[in-house]
Amino acid sequence: MIRLFTILPAAILLLLAGCVSKVVEEDRPPQMMIAQNSDGDVTMTWESELGLVYTVYCQKTKGGDWVALQGASRLRGTGETMTVRDRSNPRMPARRYRVLPEKP
After folding, report:
1. With b meaning 16 or more CB within 10 Å and e meaning fewer, what string describes 49-78?
2. What is the C-alpha to C-alpha distance for residues 96 and 59, in angstroms, rounded to an integer?
């Protein structure tokens, strides 16, 4: 009987040692790098995750509606750097951009 009381806690400890808990954080938009050349071409890059899809949105005027950038909706994450380009008129006010991840 005494042997059981010494073995049982050790067995429980061994079983629990294999368990791993992970804090799951809310999906946050990835940090996006944005560059614009003098012709108005805008290049956006970010690090993607496998298993997520990304949509790039633009806002043409401050306070205006965010609309999905044409050709940049539901892009599958590759686990590597993703790049999207947008051609805008350099004489117009600069657009604002954001990228949002989603689970498919």
Report:
1. eeebbbbbbbeeeeeeeeeebeebeebebe
2. 5
- 24, two tokens: 């799951």
Question: What is the chain's alpha carbon radius of gyration, rounded to the nearest angstrom?
Answer: 24
**SS3 of residue 33 by DSSP:** strand
Entry pTM: 0.69
- Model confidence pLDDT, tens digit, residues 38-50: 888 999 999 999 9
Spell out the residues 6+ positions from residue 24 whose beta carbon is closer than 8 angstroms to its own. Answer: none
**Residue 5 domain flag:** no
| Amino acid found at 41 | D
For 16, counting Cβ atoms within 10 Å of its Cβ (0-12 exposed, 13-18 middle, 19+ buried), the class is exposed
How far is Cα 98 from Cα 92, in angstroms, rounded to an integer? 19
Asked if residue 87 is part of any domain, the answer here is yes
Q: Please state, in angstroms and rounded to a whole number, the distance separating the CA atoms of residues 98 and 12.
A: 48
- Which domain does 72 fall in, by range? 27-102
